[in-house]
Structure formats: structure tokens, C-alpha cells
Amino acid sequence: MNRKIYTLKCIGICLLMLPLGRSLYAQGAVFEWARKMGGNSTVAGIFSEEEQGNAIAVDKAGNVYTTGTFRETADFDPGAATLNLTSAGDRDIFVSKLDAAGTLVWALRLGGSGNDEGLGITTDTAGNVYITGKFEDTVDFDPGPGTSNLVSMGAHDIFITKLDPGGAHIWTKQIGGDDEQLANAIAVDKAGNVYTTGWITRTTPATSGSADFDPGPGVYTLTSAAYNNAFISKLDANGDFVWAKQIVATNSEGYALTLSDGYVYSAGGFSGTADMDPSPGGTYTFNTLIADEYILKLDTAGNFVWARQIGGDNLSVLSFCFANAIAIDAQENVYTSGPYFGDPDFDPDPVTNYNLPATGISEGFLSKLDSAGHFVWAKVTSGNGAINFGYSVATDAAGNVYAAGEFSETTNFYTGLPGDTLKALGGKDIFISKLSPAGSLLWLKGIGGTDNDQGHAITTDQSGNIYTTGYFKTTVDFDPGPGTTSLTAAGSSDIFVHKMRCADTNSSYLPVTACSFTFNGHTYTTSGIYVEKLPNSNGCDSTVTIDLHVDVAAPVITVNGFTLGTLLPYTAYQWWRNGAAIPGATAATYAVTLNGDYSVAVVNAAGCSGTSAVYKVTNVTGIEDLPALAAQVRTYPNPATATVFVQAPVKTNLLLTDIRGRVLRDLPAADTLSLEGLADGIYLLQIRTAEGLLIRTEKLVKQAQ
């Protein structure tokens, strides 16, 4: 069984066999690939999952990471090659990295002579990988040639391991005591701080139920008040202790954790009485008869913000409810998923109620609260005699919600409508579902064979692809659509990694001519091809290719006798002298009557504005000699392939620009011009006197040899 399921899950549910269906609203997602990892290990019995994926993460490059447990020898290369890993004891931890196409990048084993398990995994922006879970006895947490041995102090201790993108060991930290400790979930913030949640245990009076949460030389002890007590802990980027908080309760268990920029959200379950405010002297008390879900919000300093109870503060109601998973969207709406039975109240407000009575042995729920912890909606999976379980939840950029888990028999998903029903093929099947931000069912997938199969974890990437992991038995078709992709477990159970992509993606081409262009919050000021990705309402990326031509207005002044003009026509003009606009000088030409520094500001047909370089006039009477001088200038060859020569009766300065006015060559006192390195095309050559007076502007053509 899933080793993340402990005491609270067995208070009301110790049967745990759940299945699934096929595909509804199939256009919403398309099968991409499925991969299996596992070996020939077999153990008879109801809980015979020898290999299973417990947690999954994806980085910004689309690489897929999983962790879980395996036994004996298992092949972790899902391709034609073989990468066998062999457990050192009962069960060992595996960590696997596949690329976006599902090809093995690396896989490694961590474990000793006992029972060790990876329960949580995440990555940071640099591609480093973080794993947490539990271990016993002595374990070397360096999968490479080095050694990083840790020895458990009790039945099981918590490990937190950081690997680089290549799977090399960076550090491992231990949290332990004289009884049972485990961490179920892990998250990393932008600064590299590491957060975990789980619980510490006092199983007998002979143990203290204490655990030291400072993995360094210091000591920071939390002690379980009764049986299990949930914790949330924070280490810095080097694995050094920052803080640890405890939910003091008759029994409390932390299953899930997620982060925003400023807050830590955790979820799990509790029984009896629980104080949800972990600050010294603070109290925020919940009570329940059997077991209820809790959602706790702290700031990143560990200070209490709010807590919510799902199930009901009613000691006369026989109900059972706890959260297996938690996720938030961009607005910090909070989504949780898990199992329940009885008649729990999903609205945490003590005044209002939202009850969804269970019709089967166990139902699965998916609920949404806003960022302040107020109820938004709740949905359930239900079926007479069915066992349904929500194990994981994720969101996408559009605020859609994804859930994965298991179901049995015939189960309705979220709506109560006959069409939104799946029938399990075996004892229990895998379900994957997608709901809108408003809670409407968008699509539903069922995957399973003739035995028991289970979806443990789900995540999404920035493009709206969906990834799941868990275990399967016998032969399973992992394509929930019309195709077939069957995988067969080699032993009692194998690990699967599954990817679906969005079906309703689209692409468009957008040619733009403008001075600059703003799209999707990005402003472009230079010509080029730009690709923008936009999530649509279904969380799938639409691709827009922008072909941008920046039409910069860069006027070049021409001279004709006493008259200044421009080389190209424009829609508006303003002539300037000595840095001041000349009143009324808004025509395409301007007759010069005074010496000075002249320029012209223009607007082209695209609405882009620009200003010319200064044309200096030092002797008004001398300007009329320039046409005669221009007639004596010879430029050759034109067209040219490599070099242009300028023949003139005076010394010349040469200025070469492209047709938009960008300067390519600026040569004082020159009569030759090299065209080496320039593309074939049309250029403008300004020929000036040594004093800077423009003699003429020549259109110059470069062509291939």
C-alpha cells in the first residue's frame, strides 16, 4: 500500500482497494507517453506493492522526477536498455529522472538494511532535486563514490536529501528521535529554503516521542503530546535549521505542503483535540469525534496566519475526513483532496454548512477555499459500495484543478450526472480529472487493468502537460483515449510515470509593422521573430509567432540650392534650427535664410517619429555652391561588390547608412569605401565636405560577385 497512509487513514478505512474508468470529455487531454520501472519481486497478500511511485515533480525543461520505493532488483530504464538497481534491505528509496520524451536520464538508489521510502520530491529553479521520506538503521545517502552515512535513532527517522541536476549528492540532513518519524511532503522557495511536513510519534510509554529538528550541532526538540503530532519544518539552502512548528493534538498527521511567495500552506488530519497555533502561548483549538481535515497557513517565518477545519466541530457526528494533498493557484486559492465517509461539513465557517454525505465505503473529495480560508466549493467522487480515494491535487496557470487517485466499482465524479461516471475494470483503477476554477468537470480519465492500480501523485508544467505516478499490476492500457499503450508489471507491482498533453492548443502568425509592439506584457522595440505562449481557459498553451518589423523614422536631410528636404517622404514635418522649432516650418521642404544647425522631426505613415542628424549651415551664400559641387562628384562602381571610390574636387567625409538611417560606416577624410561584411542590398551614401556640409546623398547598391 502507499506508505504515506498511516494511522488516521486506518481509523475508518483499513480496506483500501480502489479503481477507475476510461475517458470522458476526451478532447481535453491527449495521451503522450507512459513508462514503467520495476522488477520481478513478488509478495502475496492484499498489500503487495513491491515497487511504487509516491511523488512526482517536473522542472522548467520538462524533465520528470519521481521517488518512491522498490524491493530486490528492479530495472529503472523504461527503454530498451537496462539499468538494474538492487535494494540493500527490505525496501529502498529510488529517485528517477526522465527527460520530456520519457527517456531515462538517470536513476539512483538510497537505502540500507531496513525499510526505507521516498515520500516527497521537488526541484528548484537551478534544477537541483530535493527528496524526503523515512529511513531506518544505517543508510548511505550519497549515491556516488562518496559516503554520507546516517544512522536512525529510532524505528524510522526523517531524511532530507539535495542532489544536483546530474544526481550527484550535495547534502543530506536527518531529523530523528527514539520512536517513529517521517516526512510526507517537501517544497523549496525561490531562495532555496526547504520546507517539510509529516509527523513525530510516541507509540509506547517507553519512548519519549521527541525528535531533534536541528540537523546541525544545535538542538531543537519537539515532543509528541500523545500519539502522532504533525510538524512543519524549515531549513535554509545549506540545510541548516531555521524553525520547526508542531500541531499539538490527541493525534495529528501532516500529509501535504505547498508554498506561495510569502506563505506556507500545509494540510493533513487530526483526531480528538488539536491546537493549530504553533506559536508559544497561542491557541486555536479544533475538536472532532473521529478524524477531520485541517488546513494550516503560516508565514515563511513560521507565524500563525489561519487554520481551517473540514469535517465539523460536532462531537455527535460520525464522520471521517482528512487531506492527502494540497495545492494553490496564482490567487492563492487553496485546494485539498483526500478521502471521507459519513457526513462531513466542507464549509469551515462555524455558521454555515456544506454537507456531502458519503454513499460508499469511502468517498474522495476535492475542495476549494479562498486565500483567506473561506469556502468556495467542494466536489466528491461517489458510488454505492465503492471505495474512492483522492491522493493528489495540482493546478495550472489558468487556475484549473487536477486530481489523481483511485476508485472502485461504478463511481460518479463530482457532478452526480449519469454521464460523468467511470466503471473500474479491476479491483481499483486510477483516475485523473480536471476541473475549472469554478469546479466544473472539464475531463476525466480512467486507467486500469484487472487487478489493483493506484495514482499516487500528479503535477503539471507551464505548458499544461499533466504528469502522474503510482503503481500498477498485471497488464494496463495507459492510453485512456482510442489508442492502446499497454504495459505489463514484471512482479507484484511496477512503478508507472504517465504524461498527457493538452489537446486544445493552437498557434497563430502575427505580422506587425510598428514603431514598437507590446504583447502579453512584453514590449519589443527591434525587428525580429518573437514567440509568445499564452495559457487558454483550459490551461493549455496557445503559441503566437510575432513577425515584427520596427518601422523607425530616420530622416536624412537633402540639399537643393537654398532648400532643405528629406530623402524619403513622411506624413508630418517640423524643421528645427539651433535646437528650437521654427514656427510654421511644417512642410516637406524648408528654405534656409540664416546660418545655424538645422534638423527635421518627422512622422511616418506607421505613426513612428524620428529626428534627423544636424545639418550645419555656416554661410548661407555658400549653400548655393553645393549643387555645382555635387555635379562634379563621381561615385563608382555602382552597383559595387567590394569597394566604392568617390572622386570629388574637394576633400570629402563619407557616411554610409542603411535605408532606415542606421549608420554603418563613418569615414572622415576618405575617398574609398569598403563594403566587406555588408549584405547585398540598397544603402545610402552621404558625401560631405570636410566642414560637414552635405554635397549629395547617393543611392548605393551592393551585389554579389
Automatic annotation (TrEMBL):
<dbReference type="Pfam" id="PF06739">
    <property type="entry name" value="SBBP"/>
</dbReference>
<feature type="signal peptide">
    <location>
        <begin position="1"/>
        <end position="28"/>
    </location>
</feature>
<dbReference type="InterPro" id="IPR011042">
    <property type="entry name" value="6-blade_b-propeller_TolB-like"/>
</dbReference>
<dbReference type="InterPro" id="IPR010620">
    <property type="entry name" value="SBBP_repeat"/>
</dbReference>
<protein>
    <submittedName>
        <fullName>Putative secreted protein (Por secretion system target)</fullName>
    </submittedName>
</protein>
<dbReference type="InterPro" id="IPR026444">
    <property type="entry name" value="Secre_tail"/>
</dbReference>
<dbReference type="InterPro" id="IPR052918">
    <property type="entry name" value="Motility_Chemotaxis_Reg"/>
</dbReference>
<keyword id="KW-0732">Signal</keyword>
